[in-house]
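Format notes (please read before filing issues)

Several people have asked whether sequences and structure tokens are stored in separate files. They are not. Every record keeps both together, in the order shown below: the sequence lines, then the token lines. Line labels are part of the format and must not be stripped during preprocessing.
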Amino acid sequence: GRFPPFEPGMCRLLALAAAGCGALLAGASLLRRWAAPVLAAAFLLLGGALGWAAATSLQSAAEAAAAPAVGCTLTLLGDSSDTGFGEGALARMDLPDGTGLTVSARFPAGSALFYGQRFSCRGALRALDTETGAYPWSQGAGGIFDVSGSDAIAGSGPLAALVRFRMRAVEALAGDGAAGGMLQAVACGYRREVRGSEAYRDYQACGIAHLIAVSGAHLVIVTGLFGAVLQRIGCPRRAAVVMLTALMAAYLVLSAMPLSALRAAVMSSAGILALFGRRRPSSPNALGLAMGSTVLLDPAASVSVSFALSALSTAGIVLFAPLMREWFATGLLHRLPAAADALALTASSGLLSQLYVCSVFSLLPLASPLANIAAAPLFAPLCGLGLIAGTAGALSLPFAGPLLAAARAAARLMNGLAAALASLPFAAVPFTCSTAAALGASLGAAALLWASWPRARQLAPIAAAAVLAAGALWIAPAAGDRIVMLDVGQGDAFLIQSGGRSLLIDTGNRDTQLLKGLAGRHLSTLDAVLVTHGDDDHCGSLDALGSSVQVGSALLAAGTWDCGDDTARDLLQAAGECCRTVQPLAKGDRLRLGAFEAEVLHPDAFEDGGGNGDSLCLLLAYDGDGDGTADATALFTGDAESGQLAQMIAEYELRDVDILKVGHHGSKNAFDQAAIEALSPR
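Then the structure lines:
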């Protein structure tokens, strides 16, 4: 189906309605009665009008250009990533007739591409759809451009020189595995090597993933830490603001000044005013101006998740960092001002943004306060070393080698800290909620805190009790017996629950979708995870479980240990890292899970090198009334195909199953008419 769901005409009507209501409320605020809340509502409506107007222009431009495009020019607006089918990157497409559009460009497989590079391309533009359109739309793309051929355009001028300098810095910082990827992300905003890695999952699990992205939260923490140092040494306020601005400029130069970093810098500047200006009313005004200017200059920001996260995080710091700092500095941490500052920044930035993060990524990092305190003294030196070493390496200076070695050592130390914190029990738990509920709850909590200022400290025990009560209700195990097919896109993930126990069959390869499914069942522990075979769409998210879900056992086909295939070795390693024990399953083995009993029907021995034909196949029998007779049956076949299915039907005389998990996602080789007639699934 078409994505997004609203037609440009509807967006235009919504924009006009919001603008009209906002203008009326703005006029009503002149009466000076309830002026502040009325004016706030007016600006919210006007902001909504900007957003709908941006959506209108984006959709109209996409529909006007939705046709094969020949001879267009693409300018990359971000670094490319490996999509599994080639290189993907956000890009500006300029057509020969002078029109242009932001698109999600899909290049054939090849080497990595960098922000700012330009190409003369041939290909076809297609509209967004419901299956693939949500993420490109959130980036501000109005369509998907499939590149069939391209030629690089040698650029000239300051921007081209800056792009080349950044590429040299990225190359200089490479190496040493995860440490090099960390340095590339921190110093240059280049996250290709670290994204999706085990190290990145560790940072997500302990709530400090913002440290490896040049974003609003990233710059706020950096400037906050340096600001705290400058305050301690008695640096004059004006000089401190100049120095912090220069620090942000250094990050922007080395990250090639992408729009996301520019937006972050604008909002971080508002945060500096809040931290040093001591004029609470002016800081929200500055932040509102920054946000409005950003949307006006870049309308696509209105549909950007990263922009929303940056805005919410910075708004929390602007509004509540002074109060949070006062609380922490006068409490148990009055002798540890650096720790108090780190906690104040963490708490204030998360007040408005944390639930929204949960609604997007389905993960709640409980270790975040501890992780931010622990990372605070390490992160500033790491940033400084990364910037200096990257610059020295790009310029081929003689002392670049020792600087790069020191920077990599600091990165290894930071990665080790993240890994240690992520390994703590319940460092992160799956948690999800709707976006509307997340924003409503966050705004409600912020309004209550603002209204009760400065007596808000009295609300702390009540708030803590409410959070604990909500947490207790959330983790309460759901009663009953069930088989749930989790929505993980093109992949398998089935949850079996009975008698307070839980078994996950396969994981899919979309981490967020898997965690969202588990969070929907209020699960932060699993008794076991069974992997049918080593294909990525069946076990690709096994690592994500290890960083956020406590898993008792991993159950794998017995032949996995003797297979010798690289896929089998990777599966054994991933299972060993995310589960307490790894156990083999062989044909004839039985598993008991409450009212369910599963029997392994296949394989007897590996004959397909651990591939589809060697998938673990289970017959699950459900005895709900405990009379010893199965009330229902379900056959799980992994990616097994028609030959293996026919063999199982004949050997076990399988008939009339209630549920059939069709092999290999419904491939034409997975079953035939005879098998379906024999099994006759309900």
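For reference, the curators noted about this record: The chain has a mean pLDDT of 80. DSSP finds 23 helices and 19 strands in the chain.
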